[in-house]
Amino acid sequence: MSNRLPTASQRRRHALISAWRGMDGGPIIDLPLKSVADLIGPIVSQAGIGERMKLEEVLGAWKEIVGDFLYQHSRPDSIQRGVLMVRVLQPTVHHALMMERPRILKRLKETLKNSGIKDVRLKHG
């Protein structure tokens, strides 16, 4: 820790912020430092965008995983509690994806190791 004392301006700012928050946070200089890396995880989970970030990864790899034809007729729509929801346009594509579902799930897990996807479900639309 540093042995320097806060300036008058820092003390006023700290007092104002403490009063606004309704608590005394202690001396400014003694407050713990946090890196941006430490803050990103909680912010992402609080904002609820973790699933959206995973979906963007899936969208980027979808063509490679399912191939050109199925890519043109299907689209990953959302991830809810580890289940990837895929929207399909035609019953024949739905059937083809159902037949390939175990392989698709395996490739998703191999390609996107930290995605947390446990299952793939298909819906028309």
Describe the structure.
It is a single chain. The chain is an alpha+beta fold. The chain has 2 domains: 8-46; 50-124, GMP Synthetase, Chain A, domain 3, CATH 3.30.300.180. It is 55% helix and 15% strand. It has helices spanning 8-21, 36-47, 50-66, 68-72, 91-111, and strands at residues 74-80, 83-88, 119-124. A 3-stranded mixed beta sheet has the order 1-2-3.
Topology record:
Elements: H1 8-21, H2 36-47, H3 50-66, H4 68-72, E1 74-80, E2 83-88, H5 91-111, E3 119-124
Parallel strand pairs: 2-3
Antiparallel strand pairs: 1-2
Helix pairs in contact: 3-5
Summarize the structure.
Pfam families: DciA. This protein is α+β, with helices and mostly antiparallel strands and 125 residues long. It contains 5 helices and 3 strands; from the N terminus they run ααααββαβ.
